[in-house]
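From the shared-data thread, chain only:
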Amino acid sequence: MAALPELIKENPPEQTYTKHDQLYKELISTFFKEFLIAFFPEVHEHLDFQAIKPISEEVYTNLIEGETRRLDIVAETKLKNTDIIVIVHIEPQSYVQTNFHERMFHYFSLPYNKYRKPIIPIAIFSYEGNLGKG
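Structure, as tokens:
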């Protein structure tokens, strides 16, 4: 019996971190309606996609702290068969951040303070591990 050839393995590259936020942002922006159908069908069924208006990368300034914030995906639309305008805010998160809940609340309040419209906040966690612990 012939000996099996030795397998040649490449040395694995150093572990590098890929930020998935931008990838998710592009994917969700391109397939916004399909994303909501797949993951949030109860939200999708109430939105009028004929009235959708992307307002992504909206920059908000915190007048108290003097900081600028850029929200990832923000879209304005109406509820079906009404004139009620709602804002959908999607925030991809690719790394553990112990105070993410505070950041998401702060990000939620920025478009609300500007538009005074109902906000539908959605966070997308793409990192491995226990999402409940930072």
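The chain has one domain: 21-125.
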